[in-house]
Amino acid sequence: MGVLQAMQSALSGLRATQAGLDVVAQNIANADSVGYTRRVLPLTQQVSGETTTGVKAGAVQRMLDILLQRQLRLETAGAAYTDVKANYTAELDSLFGAPGSESALDTTLNKFTQALQGLVNDPGSFTARATVLAGATNLAAQLNGLSQQIQTMRTNAEAAIASNVQHTNDLLDQLQQVNDHILAGNTNNAALLDQRDQIIDDLSRLMDVRVTRLDSGSVNVMTTGGLALFDGVAAVNLKFDVRNNLTPQSLYDIDPTKRTVGTIMVENASGGGFDVLSTNLIRSGEIAGLVELRDKILVEAQTQLDQLAAGLASVLADRTQAGTAVVGPPAGFDVDLTGLQNGNVITLDYIDTPAGTTHRVSFIRVEDPSQLPLDDAATADPNDRVFGISFGGGFAAAATQMQAAFTSLGANVVASNPGGSTIRIVDDGAGNTTDVTGLSAKITVTTLTSGNVELPFFVDGGLNDTPFTGSFEGGAHTLGFAQRIRLNPAIAGDASKLVQFAATTLAGDATRPQHLLDALTNSSRLFAPESGIGGSAAPYGGTISDFARRIVETQGANAQNAQSLNQGQSIVLTSLQQRFAETAGVNVDRELSNLVTLQTAYAANARVITATKEMMDLLLRL
Amino acid sequence: MSIDPFSPGLISSRTTGNMFVSLRAQIEDLQRQLATGKKADTFGGLGFGRRVALDFRARLSLIEGYDNNVANATVRLSLMTQGVESLRKLAQDGKASALNGFAPGADGLTASQRLSQEGIKQAIDVLNGDIAGRYMFAGRATDVKPVETYALILNGDATHAGLKQLIDQRQQADRGATGLGRLNLTNVAANVTLAEQAAGLPFGFKIAGASADGGNIAATYAGAPPASAAFDVNTQAADGDKVRVVLDLPDGTQQTVELVARTTPSAGAAENAFAIGATVNATAANLATALQAAVSKAAATTLSAASAQVAANDFFAGSVSSPPVRVNGPPFDTAIGTIAGTPANTVIWYKGDDTSPTARATAPVQADAAQVVATGAQANEAAFRVVLAQLGVLAAQTFSPTDPDAQARYEANTDRVRTQLAFPAGTQSIEHIATELALADATLRSAKERHGTTKGVLQDAVDSVENAASEEVATAILALQTRLQASYQTTSILSRLSLTNFI
Question: Is residue A272 predicted with pLDDT exceeding 90?
């Protein structure tokens, strides 16, 4: 081994330390860069034949824990999902006002109730009447406002989905480009790999992505639900047909002809595509959160308000028409259906004998054949079978339709029209296999001084102020009713109608005010399980004011839950980020100590060269 | 926080930054709590207590509503009680002044009558009392002034008959054309028969019995309609023999006309005695003459007073849905029946609610969830009507000082007025009404007291959920402040510790 060899080694050492310095400089310069992973330069001995001839700088390596990275991406998606939910539910919660404040929904309802209490106490008082009208107007306006705000939130969510889908497409395009570069050049290029990881990290905020590395150096990106976003060569293009100004009627449906909100479509080469939301291919990330808000959480909140508004209107306007017993055999009931409105319900109870099994059948007046057959969920009662019946062809024809319903149920009861607007339902008489135990109808009173204490107090402002009857004509009128409910303008214009239910009613007669008050605070009814309050087997039953409070409570609890979920998720995310950073993060102190080492090594190598030179000089001077 | 891309190299300073932000946010929230006194500004922030807050708030609001009702009702009740009290005093004064002797002025009115006139006016004012436009004695017709004016009630107008006119018509109908109280007197030989004019006649005297003392004169009472009393002078009457006819008056009182046979009748007591004539027939003729005089006198005095009572009672029993019953005429002195007046021809003194089963039920006050207190009153309640009718009887009639029967008639009237104003057992008295109203008032007050306690409990529960305890908040702020300061300091020290500074 000669002196020159030592010089060669020292020179290779100088080169290696210069390269090392370069990496340290990169690390320090990029310490704050997003997506930058710490790099190290491994040094290996340079072997020539059987001897070490120097040192060699290897390829720059990224310090990266692949498993942790995968987990981090999933939790990022989860955190984005809980975050967007927490934000929206907190906003929803705040819509219901501060506890005890004048703007709280329960305060408005309490004030209306209190006004009615005052009216019962002094029905003739102008002030008491005006207070009731003001209370009712406020209540209706607040329901309108809440509903409007919920729809605004849905519209915002829709717009956010649109921009997120656009962002996804941009990211996928970038991914494809960067990936092409990687494949075309050095598949170990740290800078390009960092860039690709960064794009996928960004993507993981929007949806739950799973990345598979391919042997070719390329990656395959798909959602955990199985939606392929990037197959290693080309990225898919997502499309979102955004709708503006969502209304309560704008709902998602798998059937594209019924769908009235946007959905995410994957376009394929032939120009067709398929609906990503229909098969739940995106399960987490901001997009999934927004979709859940738009199609479930906010829709549920709207349903709650609609149920409240519908209950409010019905409980004040619907009178119960009891059946009169028909002495048999065959025994049963007659019910007089004079004034039956579209959407009004006739309820039949019968039992099988001797088994004693009880059955309930609800007939709803529906004149719009496109709405038939009705779903059993058309009434809130979980135990009934529901049939839509048209009365447009007269009561005899209606009885025939009821009979057809009985046949389809296998029920041995007989419906007939004994005359006028009466429907008679009797058991099978001598057969004695059934007993009809009850027949009644809820009929909406549509005029103010009909002699009934009930009155159309609230009307449908979207349908020329017609009384709300729960009609299904052209779609369920309950849907979005909260946005249209308003105080009957005929009452607003003539407050005496709050008291006067017949031509001869005296000004101080508390009968009608008492009915209004009792209807609000005492009369219990079932609320549809779609509101998310109460289960489908046991829907929430209570008074209107109970239900209103449960709405506020449910929204408060939802917000609180979303909030604590989000907090938990962000803690998980933070700790994962910290663990990830332990490996991938640049620690300036460490880099600086590396720098000192490199400096020393450089000086030492240089000293070797100097020494070699001195030795050469010595030799030459001999 | 939002999910944003992060650089691994900066994670520690980022975490520290986030920690500062969240500590600051906590302090700001505590500051808000201190300023507003509220734990949270949304129901979500209230935690599980939100159900208590919501439900109890609703109950508090209901109780507040009940309390408002009670407050309104107690004011109304105290005004009503005052009114009823003054009516009771009117009745008492009327009763007392009816004891005064007969001393009419030139216009035929005694001091008591003048007092009665003023009394009615006062009673009308009381019964027309309103509170903020709500008439208290109109039942459910709270917007209708329940009682007509004094002038209209007493005098009527061109087309509507008032009390005076109805009393006069009734008096005519009861007295009859012959002044015998719708009785016929016949004298054939030794027989004297007093008979009702017709069967079922609603006017005049009703013969309820006949008797005779001494055995010389036989009295026969035939009840079968028309009732009659026959006296047969079978043998010559002896001095001191008595005959008696018992007469029922339309107001339910009874009067006995008693005549004594006298050999030499003393002057001045002619109507109470008849002279024994030369023959039984002559005695019978004398008896007939005396009977004629006695019955005529009774018809002009007690019957007249009874007529006034009946007419006044009928008049005040009238209301919008059941107009008063009046004599079907003219002619009135030969009238054979009554007829319901119409709003077109008769004054309907009471315009208020007259269809409620009870007057009290016309103003129910909901004092609690299930407790309804009846606080209504109607001007046409029996006790009020008695006061008005009795004062009206005196106010509507005149007693001329020149009329020989005037004093007897006046006294027959005041007798009845006194009896009626004492509210005989079995009839509603003013005290009944006052008691019922006082009871309602007491019930309301106890409900209010109960509400006060309940409200306190509920409010405490709501406060414990919604309100932030300022001591707790202040302590929490202090603790946070210390932590934040310590963190700032440590962070600042750590940030200065970098190898860069030492190379």
Answer: no
* Residues in B touching A31 (Cβ below 8 Å): 7, 9-10
Please measure the distance between the N-terminal and C-terminal CA atoms of chain A and give it in whole angstroms: 21
CA angle A186, A191, A197 (to 5 degrees): 100
Tell whether A285 lies on the interface with B, counting CB pairs under 8 A.
no
Q: Which residue of B has its CA nearest to A508?
A: B140
- Nearest C-alpha of chain B: how many angstroms from A169? 18
CA distances in angstroms from B453 to B62, B74, B462, listed in the order given:
14, 19, 14
Is A549 an 8 Å CB contact of chain B? Answer: yes
Show the low-confidence residues of chain B (pLDDT under 70). 1-3, 265-271
Q: Does the beta carbon of A565 lie under 8 angstroms from any beta carbon of chain B?
A: no
Helix (H) or strand (E) holding B312: helix B302-317
Residue range B204-263, pLDDT digits in tens = 899 999 998 888 888 889 888 889 899 998 888 888 888 999 999 998 899 999 988 888
At B234 the pLDDT is 87
Q: A298 CB contacts (<8 Å, ≥6 apart)?
A: A88, A92, A150, A153, A154, A157
Is the CB of B208 inside 8 Å of chain A's CB atoms?
Answer: no
Per-residue confidence band for A441, with pLDDT thresholds at 50, 70 and 90: very high
Q: What is the number of other CB atoms lying within 10 angstroms of the CB of residue A493? A: 9
Q: Answer whether B151's CB lies under 8 Å from B408's CB.
A: no
Nearest CA in chain A to B9: A585
Report d(CA B424, CA A146) in Å as an integer.
66
CB contact under 8 Å between B142 and A34, yes or no, is no
Q: To probe the interface with A, which of B1, B2, B3 has the most A CB atoms within 10 Å?
A: B3
Residue A560 contacts B where some CB pair is shorter than 8 Å: yes
**B394 contacts B417 by C-beta, under 8 angstroms:** yes
Contact B102, B109 (CB under 8 A): no
H or E stretch covering A542:
strand A541-542
Which residues of chain B lie closer than 8 angstroms to A288, CB-CB?
A: none
Structure tokens at A565: 């979920």
Q: How many Å apart are CA B306 and CA B211, to the nearest integer?
A: 24
pTM, 2 dp: 0.86
CB-CB neighbors (< 8 A) of A33 in chain B? 7, 9
Q: How far apart, in Å, do the first and last CA atoms of chain B sit?
A: 38
Tokens of B432: 């009944």
Which residue is associated with the tokens 């030795």? A615
Tokens found for residue A571: 């803690």
Answer whether residue A187 shows pLDDT above 80: no
The answer to whether residue A29 neighbours chain B at the CB level (below 8 Å) is no
Q: At A418, phi and psi to the nearest 5?
A: -70, -5
Predicted confidence at residue A168, as pLDDT, reads 94
The closest of A278, A168, A290, A184 to A221, measured between CA atoms, is A168
Cα separation of A428 and B58, whole Å? 49
What pLDDT score does B1 carry? Answer: 47
Q: Within 13 Å and on the Cβ side, how many CA atoms surround A105?
A: 32
Rounded to whole angstroms, how far apart are CA atoms A441 and A348? 9
CA distance A508 to B142: 5
Chain A closest CA to B37's CA: distance in Å?
Answer: 12
**Which residue type sits at A555?**
Q
Chain B CB within 8 Å of residue A214 CB: no
Per-residue confidence (pLDDT) for residue A60, from 0 to 100: 86
Q: Which of A31, A201, A508 sits opposite B363 (nearest CB)?
A: A508
> Å from A238 to nearest chain B CA?
22
* Complex confidence, ipTM: 0.81
User: For the sheet containing A264-267, what is the strand order?
Assistant: A237-240, A264-267, A273-275
Q: Is A93 on the interface with B (CB under 8 A)?
A: yes
CB proximity A202 to B under 8 Å? yes
